[in-house]
Amino acid sequence: MKLNSILIVGGGIGGLTAAIALRRKGFPVEIVERDAEWTVYGVGIIQQFNVLRAMASLDLLDAYMSRAYGFDRTRIFSPAGKVADFDAPRLAGEQYPSNAGIRRPALQKVLATRAEELGVGIRLGVTVEAMSDDGDGVDVVFSDDTVGRYDIVIGADGVFSRTRTQIMADAPQPRYTGQWVWRYNLPQMPDLAGIDLFVGPCNAGLVPIGDDTMYMFLLSQEEPGFKLDTNGAAAAMRARAGVAPPIIAGLVEDVTRDDGVVGRPLEVIFLDGAWHSGRVVLLGDAVHASTPHLAQGAGMAIEDAIVLAEELSEQDTPEAAFTAYRDRRFERARFVAETSIRIGDMQMGKVPPFDVNELQGRAIAMMAEPI
What we know:
Elements: E1 6-9, H1 13-24, E2 29-33, E3 44-47, H2 49-57, H3 61-65, E4 68-71, E5 73-78, E6 81-87, E7 99-103, H4 104-117, E8 121-124, E9 128-133, E10 138-142, E11 147-150, E12 152-155, H5 162-167, E13 175-187, E14 194-198, E15 204-210, E16 213-221, H6 233-239, H7 246-252, E17 262-270, E18 276-277, E19 280-282, H8 285-288, H9 297-314, H10 318-347, H11 356-368
Parallel strand pairs: 1-2, 1-12, 2-8, 5-14, 12-19
Antiparallel strand pairs: 3-7, 4-7, 5-6, 9-10, 10-11, 13-16, 13-17, 14-15, 15-16, 18-19
């Protein structure tokens, strides 16, 4: 179909990837991002084999890997010792690793640079105040008192998506799972060749992200309404290590800078119904925010963006494209959302114990399938 104007609300991973994928299809794209500084918190992110395949499809993989740390190996340890040690598939080609760790600001820079090279207009410090969809287009009023008319609007504005509330008054609200995730960057251990995960009384992990840096994450159970003050954040993270394995117990003592701690509650949402209304469609965390237990949140947004661009280029109408996009993404996104939450629920004792390794094996098999 021919589209003369596309607005993307949100300049994060999903929004930028959508802009890149759409520009590569020849569509004109504009992004509005509410954060005037376009800040990204500075810990790392795991990008698995399906994400590297997606990056390759956008001709972004070399730029991406120049800022990342590539690896194949994942090791899982319980209090009794190592319980799993495996390499993930190399979906981007044998010359590339299976997975990568990268600093979030570095990933943002790679995506933003490519979007700008492709001619994407990016307006910072701007929000959508109102939208009116007349069936032929969407009239938009922005917070800077400007207006615009767009053939379609894409909401990529996260778990607390304002776009979602504007087009779906009855949509469910995000819910808190009961867990927090805590992250902190540390010098990379010389023998860390991939992800090391630790399960048991202390659920934690170590992920290399390049430049001789790794990040440590911890999961904790917190009461609803818990707030993290910047002052004392390092001590709070150290306290969450609990009965930690020796490696984590040693490393957590190096968590000393309050401003280096990133802690956040795990809040989730999944839309069982439509992912669009009229000419406005949602992607990423706006429709299926998951917990980090499968490390697929960003990956699902990236895949969403690619599939949406494909369907918009192949279908005759926005309605047909949006429906086909949801149909292709629904089961995959639901599996990630439900499985991630289930692992967290087990860690909190909300559900009986089950074989996480078997479930992760199923996740690897599904993520290796074409999107």
